[in-house]
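Please fill in the sequence for the structure shown.

STRUCTURE ENCODING:
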């Protein structure tokens, strides 16, 4: 009896979940992406189209191999798989972000900038094509079992969402089956001779749609960043529910890891365990770990040892910790050249006979703490440079109301004045806008090209005169 095994390149588990298969596909994608990063994807003389083609054929194909066969997958698991490819797309789109950070873009936007299908779109395409092959060559009772499962994590549910994807992007219309259940769709697919061609057309339309959406997203971020540089508030600051705010500078982050990375880069934060690991031996449990990175991993996992060391020793000074970190970096580079991770246990941890530390809170422990305090004079405090506060908001970010209302006016020759003249230049909206207006920005679009970025456009005198009256 085994809990899982590999079959035709896909891992099968006893609970039918694809968690192990997702980890395996991420590893395969990184194995194919790593050797091509510097010699190929980082080369500027290679066109973006060539990079995207190689990425799709060598990396994305491994990442999405046989994913249409996943029969029991939750939405959170699927979202985790879709975002797993995101860091690998950064080198492909850096030249097309117009100065915006790639960290601000999601997977769909990155794939759109690279003119590729997202992992979720690829899964939909593969599942729709697989349905035609399975209906032709598979047994009838197979579809009876598949359709009978009505759970939201089942294959039939995701097949229904893939059909909605087809209706959204396909240039063809399906009046007879557009609003029916999966069983009618299966009969329609089995009788159709052009099903594969319709799916391919929908995939091409999806790529074009993602590309246009990505360009619009990047343009919005670019304009917002440009306006903020000129002290123009284009949108109010919205607190995301569950976001963490750095109390030292006021920036907000979505996770503790992001706050820690920011604190380390900006405020000089270092983890607290490093201030109680001067060597390779844990003075609390008396075990020798042969190098400092393994001792740090031990203290991270065993809070009892860390609390014991806190009660007997003050933190190591910041200068000593920085010197130890420099040595650890050189040690990590040597290990990486040998093909090992920094915390790889080449030798087992050994218990060394030593004098046990006094219990925390005892007179001996306080005396030891004061003794080392007098030696070091200034204990380390870099681990105090990370402090965040969880900010909650009752208003979801998608429904947040702006600080100032938005006003839309037609042009001088416009024919749509809106209901009760809300868009009319001579209507009541002009009078209301004078109370709220703080900045005047005029962007002129000709053939979907932004002219205001290259040349400062002035408002027509007719509009300005009515707003200023």
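FILLED IN BY: designer on duty
SEQUENCE:
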């Amino acid at each position: 009896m085994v809990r899982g095994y590999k079959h035709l390149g896909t891992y099968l588990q006893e609970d039918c979940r694809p968690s192990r298969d997702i980890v395996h596909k991420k590893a395969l994608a990184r194995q194919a992406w790593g050797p091509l990063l510097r010699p190929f994807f980082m080369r500027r003389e290679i066109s973006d189209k060539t990079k995207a083609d190689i990425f799709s054929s060598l990396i994305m194909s491994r990442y999405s191999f046989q994913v249409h066969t996943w029969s029991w997958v939750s939405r959170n698991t699927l979202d985790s798989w879709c975002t797993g490819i995101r860091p690998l797309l950064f080198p492909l789109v850096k030249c097309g972000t117009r100065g915006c950070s790639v960290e601000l873009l999601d997977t769909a936007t990155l794939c759109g900038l690279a003119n590729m299908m997202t992992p979720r779109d690829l899964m939909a395409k593969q599942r729709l094509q697989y349905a035609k092959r399975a209906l032709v060559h598979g047994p009838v009772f197979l579809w009876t079992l598949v359709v009978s499962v009505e759970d939201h994590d089942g294959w039939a549910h995701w097949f229904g969402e893939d059909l909605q994807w087809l209706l959204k992007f396909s240039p063809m219309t399906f009046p007879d089956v557009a609003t029916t259940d999966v069983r009618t769709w299966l009969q329609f697919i089995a009788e159709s001779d052009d099903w594969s061609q319709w799916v391919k057309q929908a995939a091409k339309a999806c790529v074009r749609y993602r590309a246009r959406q990505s360009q619009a997203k990047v343009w919005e971020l670019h304009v917002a960043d440009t306006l903020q540089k000129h002290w123009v508030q284009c949108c109010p600051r919205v607190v995301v529910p569950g976001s963490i705010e750095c109390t030292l500078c006021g920036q907000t982050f979505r996770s503790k890891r992001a706050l820690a990375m920011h604190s380390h880069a900006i405020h000089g934060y270092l983890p607290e365990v490093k201030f109680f690991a001067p060597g390779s031996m844990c003075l609390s449990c008396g075990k020798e770990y042969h190098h400092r990175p393994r001792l740090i991993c031990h203290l991270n996992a065993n809070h009892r040892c860390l609390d014991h060391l806190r009660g007997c020793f003050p933190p190591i000074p910041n200068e000593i910790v920085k010197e130890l970190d420099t040595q650890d970096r050189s040690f990590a580079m040597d290990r990486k050249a040998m093909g090992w991770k920094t915390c790889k246990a080449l030798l087992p941890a050994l218990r060394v006979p030593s004098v046990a530390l006094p219990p925390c809170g005892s007179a001996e422990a306080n005396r030891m703490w004061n003794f080392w305090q007098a030696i070091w004079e200034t204990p380390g405090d870099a681990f105090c440079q990370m402090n965040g506060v969880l900010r909650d908001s009752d208003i979801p970010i998608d429904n947040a109301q702006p600080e100032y209302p938005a006003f839309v006016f037609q042009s001088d020759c416009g024919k749509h004045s809106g209901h009760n003249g809300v868009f009319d230049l001579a209507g009541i909206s002009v009078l209301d806008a004078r109370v709220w207006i703080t900045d005047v920005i005029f962007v002129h679009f000709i053939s979907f090209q932004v002219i205001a970025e290259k040349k400062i456009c002035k408002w027509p005198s007719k509009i300005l005169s009515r707003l200023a009256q």
